[in-house]
Amino acid sequence: MADPTAARPAFAGVDHLALTVTDLDRSRRFYTEVLDFVVVMDVGTGLICMHPQTGFVLALLRHEGGHDDPFSELHVGADHLGFTAASRTELEAWERHFDAHDVPYTPIRDELFGSHLNFRDPDNIALELSSSNELMIAAQSALSSGQTGPADIAAFITEHLGSDFVVRQPTATG
What sign does the dihedral 59-60-66-67 (CA atoms) show? Predict the structure, then answer.
């Protein structure tokens, strides 16, 4: 049995994301022309792309025997990939950019922790650009400090959003 008091290993961040696509050429055009990724390697069954400003690595893969069904977030697995935008104003610029490239999207939505703009790639993969508001930035800062525990999180949520949003701890059964 694992020792619950043992130090938990950490990870430094997200290294890459690999997406299964139906057409490598079509996906290459979308991710390079619309989102400014650069293809850095062709491995035959896939393309390794990197975003020049962030260094984020995205692999586009075409699997032998893969299905050509479009992506659906209603299936078990990934729901969407979220990219960071610097501000709501930047999200508005993205809407104009998507219009110029005929990219389907939903209008910007302002939510509790910021604003987001949802869009789709050529395989219908759900993508999102989001801009955190001051409340989300404060929450992320507090949590990443390493000094925030469950009670602190519950107090923050209650103060800013109300007690209905506080995560309830599971109770022991039987």
Answer: positive
Short-list 169, 133, 138, 164, CA closest to 151: 169
Residues in the chain: 174
**Which amino acid is it at 6?**
A
Give the Cα separation of 151 and 166 in Å (integer): 10
Q: DSSP labels for 122-170?
A: TT--EEEEEEE-HHHHHHHHHHHTT---HHHHHHHHHHHT-GGGSPPPP
SS3 of 76, please?
coil
Task: Quote the tokens at residue 113.
Answer: 């922790």
Q: Which two tokens stand for residue 101?
A: 């490239």
Residue 5 confidence (pLDDT) above 70: no
Identify the structural domains of the chain with CATH numbers, from first to last: 16-62 (3.10.180.10), 79-132 (3.10.180.10), 135-164 (no CATH)
- Residue for token digits 């209603």? 74
Q: Are 59 and 98 in contact (CB under 8 A)?
A: no
**Terminal CA-CA length for the chain:** 21
**6-56 confidence digits (pLDDT tens):** 776 777 777 789 999 999 999 999 999 999 999 999 998 999 999 999 999
CA–CA dist 19, 149 (Å, integer)? 34
